[in-house]
Amino acid sequence: MAEPRPVLEMTGIVKEFAGTRALSGVDFRLFPGEVHALLGENGAGKSTLVKVLTGVHPLDGGTVAMDGQTVHITSPLQAQQAGISTVYQEVNLCQNLSVAENILIGHEPVRHGRILWKELRRRAAELVTRLGLDIDVSATVGSYPLAVQQLVAIIRAVGDAGTGPGTRVLILDEPTSSLDRGEVEQLFALMRRLKAQGVAIVFISHFLDQIYEICDRMTVLRNGVLVGEHPVAGLGRVDLVKLMIGKDLDELEELGEHHTRHAAGDLLLHAEGLGRTGGIAPFDLDVHAGEVVGLAGLLGSGRTELARLLFGADRSDTGRVDLDGRRVTLRAPNDAIGRGVAFLSENRRTEGLVPDLTVRENILLALQAARGWTRPVPASQRDELVAKYIAALDIRPADPEVRAGALSGGNQQKVLLARWLLTQPKLLVLDEPTRGIDVGAKAEIQKLVVSLSEEGMAVVYISAELEEVLRLSHTVAVLRDRRLAARIVNGPDVTPGRILEIIASGEHR
Amino acid sequence: MNLASLWRAAAQHRLFWPVTALIALLALNVPFTPGFFEVHLKNGHLYGSLVSIVLFGSPLILVAIGMTLVIATGGIDLSVGAVVAISGALACLVVSKQADQDSVAGVLLAFALALAAALVCGAWNGLLVARLGIQPIIATLILMVAGRGIAQLITSGQIITVNSDSYSLIGGGYWLALPFALFVVAFVAALSAALTRRTALGLLIEAVGGNAEASRLVGIRARRIKVMAYVFCALCAGVAGLMISSNVSAADGNNAGLWIELDAILAVVIGGTSLSGGRFHLGGTVVGALIIQTLTTTIYTIGVPTQANLVFKAVVVIIVCLVQSPAFRAKAFRARAKRSGPVPRPPGTPADAAHMEVSS
Predict the structure, then answer these.
(1) Which residue, A142, A199, A211, A148, is CA-closest to A174?
(2) Does the reported pTM lie above 0.90?
(3) Does residue A268 share a domain with residue A244?
(4) Are A197 and A262 members of one domain?
(5) The predicted structure's pLDDT at residue B340
(6) Model confidence pLDDT, tens digit, residues B266-302
């Protein structure tokens, strides 16, 4: 393939934060009409590179050139004007505005200083239909589930591709982390269409399958350093992961046989006819000590709703729960926590972390809440506990006084895990604990789940990745249309295909 | 550690800029009042501008300390001025009805009743905010408006004057050569520091203010924490009300503590606590309150025309807030450095940039 001129060329990029090098001398090339994967573990510098490119962070060294011309991008607006559009990992939409307003924000059709609302809606609707989607553009964004919001964010980013000066470079930072398979397909179809128009797409994702499906080339970063630029076809998955984490994958492999081990603990949780109108239909569920119960199902199938009922995060309106053989009423999280239940929400940022507090404070929060305000954890014990869990979970940086909000996603997740492990729960409910975090941290968290269950902790594990659920679970509960469709004892004959069948047909008894 | 690195460490400290602003403001008085920093002993009492600033600033410091905790939970309390009025009115009423106004027992009874009323006010605010889920600014607006009316009812629309040496101790009296109010402030400040930092209350308040939903899911009883913050704030305002009325030996339902809520909020913000809740800094708040009181004093000593008082105050507050904002300093430094050579690294962290937002 004769190499055309790159549309974007970044050379020797350096970025420092308070003395730490986030990027040291990274080169990055992007050609028109390609989908380029930007890969690396959490904290490898992917997001930083994107933020430098889009003018969110000022450059500390190196040059950026578009079409061979050096450019200085110092603000997101300039980046947009240069034809670089971005969709960030966390949905950045105005929840209280309509879909149409969000899509065309900053580009509203105006006449005599007045916004033409009809025209605005018409244009937005046109963009939505052109992408083969069915979204009511006059409804507020907040009324849609996260997955649809993500799509809206993408539509907004490419929105002016058809009307404005044109998006030359589209950056998608973890766009698929909250999408289900169907929605991912829609996104990929759109990406292929844009690619055919010559748009260069930077695709950041932790889903290797998706990278091999959609990407042409890839750039791999590790600890802020470029470790390779490869055509996707020329590099196998195992080699890629090795490149990313800089070590072998044996750790992941050895987890493979986990489900053959049998768990035979006492009945810990027994839910009978538990349900919540509009959330999940009444279901029965048993969880034993030392058992990992995987919840499989599409996004919106009721996985999260089920988990929240077990924790008292939402109130059930039917049914009952026995914990340790005792009838309990779960009115609030407190009631569940007091009986040894812990819950890691899927929304790390909004429902887990307190970003302004330090790592130490975040880790101690659940324990402290349980002890009440009058009994602070003694200082010596406190530092010891925190240091122990930082080391055990390999939280980086290993400094308890760092603002938790400054950590990368995977490390934030570990902080939240540490927070709950400190309370020594009997039942750990994990909702998408590995979403949006890198392969290395993912393997560590999965390994942790296995060892916790071996020590007798019961785990309810939710993941959108069926392979992950099957790898870890003793029992798989399949959800479909907000209903518990099936409970299967995991074994060699249980395959993702079989689970998918149940999800698709709902038939299994 | 050499002098340069000591200096750098000091400049990094959270209180560096508020304290610098305070010192600068104090120094501004010297050309107008040559003996400004002098403190002398007269009749066994310390006198001087510095002493007056602390004495007159005492009620504000108290109210601002309480306000800090409320703001840290992500709320705000507009009713503190009204609580000041209620507390003062009730105490003066009780004292004035007594045969012997000097009786210590009578004065203590008045204090107890006034603080009980403040406690009820705080519980009411807490109920509206934490139980009924009303937006704090609206919930406390109710008592801000109604409380003045209640104070008027207590005083029957009159200004109640008292003639009691025991009563005037708390706001105007002296003890060990120092204004008694100073001891009260020191006690309340130490109590709040101990209450929040020696226990886990501070951490839990910061968690609730930093991320309310996460706090609920981690099992923090956020409602209880919030009610405690509002009650504590009202109690602080109640003590401030006693001080103000004691200082003038009179209760004025209309004017006692008027607009003190705004000064208190300002003191909290100058002290480095973000209005969006989360991290709070009691020490910063005290410095912030002193800055505001110094400003008020300065306005009188340098002879700003009465009509221009508020404008002058506003300008100084804007300057103080700007100087404290790392984002602004970085810009100012960079603009200067561009002319003179290499660009220094902007001091401070992005987290501090929140100060800039609230000042705008």
Answers:
(1) A211
(2) no
(3) no
(4) no
(5) 53
(6) 999 999 898 888 999 999 999 999 999 999 888 888 8
In tens, the pLDDT along A63-79 reads 999 888 888 888 888 88
Which among A333, A337, A376 has CB closest to B199? A376
- Tell whether A305 and A319 lie within a shared domain: yes
The answer to the question of residue A450 being in a domain is no
Among A231, A248, A265, the domain-final residue is A248
| Residue B273 · residue B192 · CB < 8 Å | no
Residue B188 CB contacts under 8 Å (≥ 6 apart), including other chains: B62, B65, B236, B239
Q: Which two tokens stand for residue B46?
A: 């310390």
Structure token pair of residue B325: 């904002």
**Could you tell me if B318 lies within 8 Å of chain A, comparing CB atoms?**
no
Residues A121 and A244 occupy one common structural domain: yes
Q: What is the pLDDT of residue A509?
A: 46
Residues in contact with A167: Cβ distance below 8 Å, sequence separation at least 6, in sequence order: A83, A84, A85, A157, A158, A160, A161, A194, A199
Count of pairs with CB atoms under 8 A, one residue in A, one in B: 86
Two structure tokens written together for A259: 């489900």
- Of A345, A404, A333, which Cα lies nearest the Cα of B278? A404
Q: What percent of chain A has pLDDT over 90?
A: 29
Asked if A276 and A403 sit in the same domain, the reply is: no
Query: Which of A140-149, B92-101, B107-116: highest mean pLDDT?
Result: B107-116
Of A419, A374, A370, nearest in space to A393 by CA: A419
> Considering only alpha carbons, which residue of chain A is nearest residue B216?
A333
Q: Any chain A CB within 8 A of the CB of B342?
A: no
State which residue of chain A sits closest to B205, comparing Cα positions. A373
Spatial distance between the Cα atoms of A293 and A284, rounded to a whole number of angstroms: 13
The complex's ipTM works out to: 0.82
Domain encompassing residue A244: 8-248
pLDDT at A476 over 50: yes
Q: CB–CB of B207 and A345 under 8 A?
A: no
A321 shares a domain with A254 = yes
Q: Where are the domains of chain B?
A: 50-308
Q: Check residue B267 and give its pLDDT.
A: 94
CB contact under 8 A, B219 and A337: yes
**Residue B86 structure tokens:** 């209620």
Residue B105's H or E segment, with its range, is helix B104-126
Task: Say whether B8 sits in a helix, a strand or coil.
Answer: helix
Asked if B213 has any chain A CB less than 8 Å from its own CB, the reply is yes
Is the model more confident about A174 or about A345?
A345
DSSP annotation string for B157-216: TSEEE---HHHHHHHH-EETTEEHHHHHHHHHHHHHHIIIIISSHHHHHHHHHH-HHHHH
Asked whether residue A182 falls in the same domain as residue A237, the answer is yes
> Given A221, A248, A275, which residue is the final one in a domain?
A248
pLDDT the model gives residue B348? 40
Say if B203 is an interface residue toward chain A (CB within 8 Å). yes
Q: Is A337 on the interface with B (CB under 8 A)?
A: yes
Average of per-residue pLDDT across A92-107: 86
Structure tokens at B10: 């000091």
Residues A344 and B172: beta-carbon distance below 8 Å: no
Selection from A206, A281, A251 nearest residue A433 by Cα: A206
pLDDT, tens digit (0-9, with 9 covering 90-100), for B134-185: 999 999 999 999 999 999 999 888 899 888 888 888 888 888 888 899 999 9
Whether A221 and A131 map to the same domain: the answer is yes
Residue of B nearest to A18 (CA): B349
| Residue B27 near chain A (CB below 8 Å) | no
Q: Do B219 and A333 touch (CB under 8 A)?
A: yes
CB of A352 within 8 Å of any CB in chain B? yes
How confident is the model at residue A477, as a pLDDT?
Answer: 93
pLDDT one-digit tens code per residue, A295-328: 988 777 788 999 999 999 999 999 999 998 899 9
- Judged by average pLDDT, the poorest of A14-23, B146-155, B207-216 is A14-23
